Amino acid sequence: MATIGMNDLKTGLTILYNQSIWRVLEFQHVKPGKGAAFVRSKLKNLRTGAVNEVTFRPGDKFETASIEQTEMQYLYADGDQHVFMDNETYDQISIPADKISESLKFLLENMTVKITTYQGEILDVELPKTVELTVKETQPGIKGATANGGGKPATMETGLVIIVPDFINEGDKLVVNTDNGGSYTSRA
């Protein structure tokens, strides 16, 4: 692990700071007319998911954190554990449901995801940008409805509830965006 200062910050860099692992989401070098320059940053805690704004001063030092990403396939749920398999070595790991509760809304069996780890500790399950899910339950579609209508709630096969256009019916396959907690993109 390398020790770096505030001038070495870059978007996407992972650092050890305040006894936790943080990813730099944004940073801005600020040079006020009076006083020393500083860096205003937005960091995401990879253990808790919290996003904090942090200001770094010229003397601040921290270490880079070497995280690994492994492509894995989601196999099945075994009680409170969810089993994933490494696509290259075929090794299997189990992750508790509470550690990946947000990702479970989008996970289907055989889906390929990226598992982020730091020294063997599982930090995150990175989903594809979009997933295809089937509508399990919604009100019947309205004939002649357009995508610009008010929308209605639909429960997907994973239990995720999203707002969909009025013309969507049960059994329809939809493309759902995973970035913002789940939103309708289009029909599949």
UniProtKB/TrEMBL annotation:
SUPFAM superfamilies: Nucleic acid-binding proteins (SSF50249), Translation proteins SH3-like domain (SSF50104). One of its GO terms (cellular component) is cytosol. InterPro entries: Elong-fact-P_C, NA-bd_OB-fold, Rib_uL2_dom2, Transl_elong_fac_P/YeiP, Transl_elong_KOW-like, Transl_elong_P/YeiP_cen, Transl_elong_P/YeiP_CS, Transl_elongation_fac_P. PANTHER family: ELONGATION FACTOR P, ELONGATION FACTOR P (EF-P) FAMILY PROTEIN. This is Elongation factor P. Signal peptide: none annotated. It comes from Weissella bombi. Keywords: Cytoplasm, Elongation factor, Protein biosynthesis. GO terms for biological process: peptide biosynthetic process. It is found in: Cytoplasm. Pfam families: EFP (PF01132), EFP_N (PF08207), Elong-fact-P_C (PF09285). Gene3D superfamilies: 2.30.30.30, Nucleic acid-binding proteins (2.40.50.140). Belongs to the elongation factor P family. Involved in peptide bond synthesis. Stimulates efficient translation and peptide-bond synthesis on native or reconstituted 70S ribosomes in vitro. Probably functions indirectly by altering the affinity of the ribosome for aminoacyl-tRNA, thus increasing their reactivity as acceptors for peptidyl transferase. Residues 131-187 form the Elongation factor P C-terminal domain. Residues 69-123 form the Translation elongation factor P/YeiP central domain. The gene is efp. Pathway: Protein biosynthesis; polypeptide chain elongation. It comes from the Bacteria. GO terms for molecular function: translation elongation factor activity.
